[in-house]
């Protein structure tokens, strides 16, 4: 975030406040949500392990990944995978239906 604030020529604190006012979430939470969205796709569409997906989407530990995923999605990554049956629907609809709320 400090790099983005420098590019915008404002302080990191002002950048964070403005980002939250504009998008309704902090830059950190936005990044977490986007990582979780990518993980949701990989859990639905691949057979890769939860650990592999955790590191691929940018989390540094499986504990943080599982806790953040559960906070955003409302269930654990393993439970999400079990409950998400592959449906023959265009990806754009799947993304819209499964997008986690902030």
Note down, in words, how this protein is organized:
The chain has 102 residues and is mainly alpha-helical. The protein contains seven helices and no strands. The protein has one domain (27-98): Homeodomain-like (Arc Repressor Mutant, subunit A, Orthogonal Bundle), CATH 1.10.10.60. The chain has helices at 2-8, 12-23, 27-45, 50-56, 62-73, 77-83, 91-98.
State the domain count.
Answer: 1
> Sheet with the most strands?
none
Q: Please give the alpha-carbon distance between the first and last residues.
A: 19 Å
What is the N-to-C succession of helices and strands? Answer: HHHHHHH
Structural class designation: mainly alpha
Gist?
The protein is mainly α. Helices cover 71% and strands 0% of the residues.
Write the layout of secondary structure elements.
Elements: H1 2-8, H2 12-23, H3 27-45, H4 50-56, H5 62-73, H6 77-83, H7 91-98
Helix pairs in contact: 1-2, 3-6
């Amino acid at each position: 975030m400090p790099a983005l604030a420098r590019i915008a020529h404002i302080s990191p604190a002002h950048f964070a406040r403005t980002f939250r006012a504009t998008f309704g979430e902090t830059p950190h939470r936005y990044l977490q949500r986007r990582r979780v969205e990518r993980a949701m796709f990989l859990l639905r569409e691949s057979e890769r392990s939860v650990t592999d997906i955790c590191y691929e989407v940018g989390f540094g530990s499986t504990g943080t990944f599982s806790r953040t995923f559960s906070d955003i999605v409302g269930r654990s990554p393993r439970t999400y995978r079990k409950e998400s049956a592959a449906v023959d629907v265009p990806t754009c609809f799947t993304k819209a239906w499964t997008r986690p709320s902030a």
